[in-house]
Write a structure and sequence with these properties.
Elements: H1 2-27, H2 33-57, H3 61-64, H4 67-91, H5 95-106, H6 110-122, H7 128-153, H8 160-168, H9 171-185, H10 191-214, H11 225-249, H12 254-264, H13 271-278, H14 283-310
InterPro entries: Mem_transp_PIN-like, Na+/solute_symporter_sf
Protein name: AEC family transporter
Pfam families: Mem_trans
Length: about 325
């Protein structure tokens, strides 16, 4: 039991210490809101690009590609989305809130928390699998989120070619595609060029987690209490219980199983707040979903890691 506790603690504590430092940075007003926006933009456009490129470039297809994991993840995402849509549309009548709730339930903080979580448990040599999954999951997150946010805004302006164009402009997708292309074609990146890419890649997760903590803000929680309870319980307890339980029964183990924890048991994606704001959804509900699910995930993630580590999943 003690050994399992140590594994869970080592996986979780570094993540939330970094987030805590970010909260302290905000409390001390070391960065203004404008500066946070600029740093966020830099992380998104430069750091994530380098991380995706480097992780894809330095892996081998045989060790990274997991067809069974990809199929299970995609099917699980859409099954959970369908069930979430039925529940949300039954209990909530306001379309703007429906869109925000669905995005919060569907879209996890896999990119920011998944990579460091896998690294904390297995080391940097295991990052090829979650990086490969980001290349598949990120376009799905973006495309589906735009679809139902536009739908519940009520203007019916969803246009697939334009959505795909936006998705393909995502720096993570570009970095992943370029890294995979260089790896598959055998193109060698000179060490003087690869070294700074590697250095930026190695500091992406810590810097992103710091800024995640510094970006937290509380809105009008009391007005959205019922919806927030549904989102937080669904995102952190119900969805992980169903998906991870099924994955365990189906025999997923090791880094594949921990990658599934990162996809299905992490809190609402930070990007969901900005997207809800831009597409006319309930931004206050979206923002508070991120804050509260992130706060409680310190407990639930620890619990899921401890439970399945004791069960021999990794």
């Amino acid at each position: 039991m003690e050994q399992h506790l140590i594994v869970a603690i080592k996986a979780i504590i570094p993540l939330f210490l970094l987030i805590g430092v970010g909260i302290y940075i905000r409390w001390q007003k070391m960065l203004t809101d404008t500066e946070l926006q600029h740093v966020n933009s830099m992380i998104f456009r430069i750091f994530f690009f380098c991380m995706m490129f480097y992780n894809m470039y330095t892996t081998t297809l045989a060790t990274a590609l997991r067809p069974r994991l990809i199929v299970f993840t995609v099917v699980s995402l859409f099954v959970m989305l369908l069930i979430s849509a039925v529940v949300v549309c039954t209990v909530e009548k306001d379309n703007r809130s429906r869109g925000a709730m669905l995005q919060a339930l569907f879209r996890s903080n896999f990119v920011l928390l998944g990579i460091p979580l896998v690294e904390n448990i297995f080391g940097s040599e295991a990052l090829a699998v979650p990086t490969m999954m980001i290349a598949f999951i990120s376009p799905i997150y973006n495309t589906v989120s735009i679809f139902f946010l536009e739908h519940f805004r009520g203007n019916g302006k969803f246009f697939l070619p334009e959505t795909l164009r936006v998705v393909l402009k995502n720096p993570m997708i570009i970095g992943g595609i370029l890294g995979a292309a260089f790896m598959l074609l055998g193109i060698t990146v000179p060490e003087p060029v690869l070294k700074p890419i590697r250095q930026i890649s190695s500091c992406t997760s810590p810097v992103a987690l710091l800024i995640l903590g510094a970006s937290f803000r509380f809105g009008e929680i009391s007005k959205e209490k019922r919806n927030l309870v549904i989102v937080v319980l669904g995102r952190l307890v119900v969805i992980p219980a169903v998906v991870l339980g099924t994955a365990y029964i189906m025999g997923f183990r090791g880094v594949d199983f921990v990658t599934l924890i990162c996809i299905f048991a992490t809190p609402c994606a930070v990007a969901s707040f900005a997207m809800a704001q831009q597409l006319g959804s309930n931004a206050v509900l979206a923002g508070n979903s991120v804050v509260l699910s992130s706060a409680f995930s310190g407990i639930t993630l620890f619990g899921w890691i401890l439970l399945f580590q004791m069960a021999g999943a990794f």
